[in-house]
Amino acid sequence: MDKILGMGNALVDVLVRIDDDSLLEKLHLPKGSMQLIQEDTLAEIRKSTAGMKIHRATGGSASNTVSALAALGATPGFIGKIGKDETGRFFDDTLRQRGVKTALKTCDLPSGIASTFISPDGERTFGTYLGAAATLHAEDLSRDMFTGYDYLYIEGYLLQDHDLMLRAMQLAKEEGLQVCLDMASYNVVEAERDFFDHLIVKYVDIVFANESEARAYTGKEPHEALEEIASKCSIAVVKTGKEGSLVKKGTEVIQLLSCPIEGVVDTTGAGDFYAAGFMYGLTCGYSLEKCVQISTILATAVIQEVGTTLPGKKWDEIKLNIDALLQV
Fold this sequence. Notes:
single chain; about 325 residues; alpha/beta; 9-stranded mixed sheet; 5-stranded mixed sheet; transferase; Carboh/pur_kinase_PfkB_CS; kinase activity; Adenosine kinase; Carb_kinase_PfkB-like
């Protein structure tokens, strides 16, 4: 099996379920978005959620993806930056326990925290304090970090640091890795559209986007967006939520429609787990159609749980479903 190296914001998710969206309005967090916040807003969030039931878990898009890959039996790595605090130790220890090889830099800032609000319809909204995670810079990277891996999976949330993204992709290419880019969030794409385009055309082999991200990048609806993105890279993936997903590689196009899902609890990590399933299938050498089907199994499983830490029984069920799929 090929090995995957993830790179992204090292965050700890603090999840809370809300009865309605009034709290989001109070905190000026647009529903369904990821907004970067400062320490004062983080303090306001803590005050507003005091007494509410919270759930803590490792977070960050790429971290979620490599953790899911490890649960499937892969041996991924992860590059990020944490603070010298309990939150940072929790992040590092948790990933290592899952079987992820961590390459974490440290600094004196507090570790990053993603306050995650889960609306009654399962939609999630992030107020993200990056802290130490935002201080991962190009000079922190060295070529040996990429040695021994076959793919670099990098999250679009890092796009604000152009030098970091360029350095990571250049080092990956020097080591012969294929580069996978998740577009992360529609507002990130809108703000960095030209730089996204530069990276995709020059360095990226596989692009993951949801419907809104693909629209922000191309100005087109899913099918047309898929065609445009696929013309610039090897494999393009456009996820269309309840409608399923679209994938194109060369002349091969796969459309997988989703079955109705009951019991959607929290959509946090759905895209991250989709990517994990796809990359798992790809590194195992399965067909494009099987990759998409495995992606759907993982994404369906995670949205029926709060957060992205699935119990052992759920992973056993996922593996049985994948085994059954491969027998067909």
